[in-house]
Structure prediction request, 582 residues.
Amino acid sequence: MTLDLMKDARIRIIIGHYGSGKTEFAVNYAMLLSQQTSNVAICDLDIVNPYFRSREKASLLESNGVTVISGARGHNANLDVPMVSPSILAPIQNEEMQVILDVGGDAVGARILARFAAYFKPGAYDMFFVLNANREQTQDAQGVISHIRNIEDTVGCKVTGIINNTHLLRESGLEDVLKGQKLADEVSKLLNIPIRYISSLEKVTRQLPNDLEGQVFPIKMYMREDWM
Amino acid sequence: MAKVLMKGNEAIGAAAIKAGCKYFFGYPITPQNELPEYMSKEMPKVGGVFLQAESEVAAINMVYGAAGAGARVMTSSSSPGIALKQEGITYIAGAELPCVIVNIVRGGPGLGGIQPAQSDYNQVTRGGGNGDYKLLVYAPANLQEMVDLMQEAFDAADYYRNPVMMVGDGMIGQMMEPIEFKESVSRFELPLKDWATTGTKGQRKPNIINSLALDPAELEKHNIHLQEKYSAMKENEVKYEAYNLENAEVVIVAYGTTSRIVRNAIIDLKEQGINVGLIRPITLWPFPEKAFDLIPSDCKAVLSVEMSMGQMIDDIKIAVNGRYPVHFYGRSGGMIPTPEGVMNKVKELVGGAK
Prediction:
């Protein structure tokens, strides 16, 4: 089944626990979306952590036609201050743009979204919670729900989909994804939020059974150098 | 135990707590902030204490106090913050107190930048504080190794009554990797801390923690005693990895994250018919001098690859002792060497591609 990312709401907000793989998913999503439409913008809203942010892949994204918005002083400023470019409002307000908001980890990282919450009207946005069941704090339903609730309370809007992105980097296997799917399923039923995508390396997605909830989203590791 | 995915800074915290660390004093600085944040959440759960001090100087002196009272204690910072701690570190070494200091290195000099670097090599191996003291310095290359070394770091600190430094470049602090927390048995027989200021209860004379000795003869005697400890560390605590040294035309010396980049370059060079070896110091002090005796006699050159501007060259030259020419390739300021850059330097040394 081919992925049609245009079926998602115009504004896609990617949130989750630190290190769940939000940025990797967001960059992969932007790369695929740029093949399906023009006018794609990715906004790197991570003001919590200065490492492994989507702005590091700005030249790759831009060469694929994606507009990249990050700090007010450019992608490479490396300033350790909570500063966001004012131009983020352009793609959020422009109904012609397809937008991905790559947000920092946890509720702390999501706080910045509250400033834009007025634009996140039901139906106009998707807020995807990226779930990695191999992360220390999101290994059970209680941990995941606590993160979802904290982020929702901070932002002021609801999560609309779960992304099962359970992995162990290069050591990821089928069992990791299935473990994550079981947890995603449990959370999905408890909170009545659908599982929207199952993202994993292509070598793993090829082995997935086809009766799982959510569309399979094969990803590449853009954020991780070969030697890591 | 199943593997979990952790960020380096969190993993250091988890490993320290597992190693019995009960007190953490620190002050924020990028790129190690997740470590105090983790400790602030986790320390109370194990009956420990997390305290954010008003400065790095305050934090290291709190470490001095807790260590003097016999507690397992840790602090962490990044390069300029470690520079601020140096006075406390030399006091702790002088007073013979055990503690673990984590340094997640960023670009320098001065405030420098917040991206990864290894430019604290001199700061951690030559002291930075005054006097004839040494730190035992570990520089793991991946998160599993760092977690595995943490128990040993605390044990060695207690055994030698000396500060131990755990060094990671910014990448080690920030990267995510799968980790398994293994049960380990201490290789040290740890003596009772009968020197600690735990209260006399009227049963004994007070213990005194001090680094001041106004009598020169007494201070010299103390220095000789310290040197004996450092000799024992040189004898017993050296750790390194030797990789692909057999028939190596060039031997690269690299530690931490840089050694991983070098390893990729070595694999690619082998496919091109160039055989390159790696000596990876796991302890920066004591430096693994004996590893250099394993280099084949017809090796053309030894190459230091660093995320700094050649700070390790002196130690390499001492270890090489004139047997091979020593060259350097490095990046600095937060720039990370690439396997291609390393390969090009090696090709230059062996006289072009084969």
Notes: The interface with chain A takes residues 3-7, 10, 14, 30-31, 34, 113-115, 170-171, 174-178, 260-261, 263-264, 334, 336, 339 of chain B (CB under 8 Å).
